[in-house]
Write a structure and sequence with these properties.
Layout lengths: L1 H23 L4 H31 L8
Helix pairs in contact: 1-2
């Protein structure tokens, strides 16, 4: 079951990347829509990773004395 889910996510990612390439070469309107959604999802993921890294870096800067 987990393998099927992972394969589905992989297929969506590959399909999204293909639509980005196709839309950049002047594909149909639906490919441009999928491309926009794929790029927006990538930006959201990238932003979440940056916030997570900033949070990890900020919490480890103390000297450990608690006050």
């Amino acid at each position: 079951m987990v393998l099927a889910l992972l394969l589905g996510v992989l297929a969506l990612a590959i399909g999204g990347c293909a639509c980005v390439v196709w839309a950049s070469r002047g594909g149909p309107p639906w490919a441009r829509a999928v491309s926009s959604a794929t790029l927006a999802a990538a930006d959201l993921i990238r932003g979440a990773q940056k916030r997570r890294r900033r949070g990890l870096r900020g919490s480890s800067g103390g000297d450990g004395d608690g006050g």
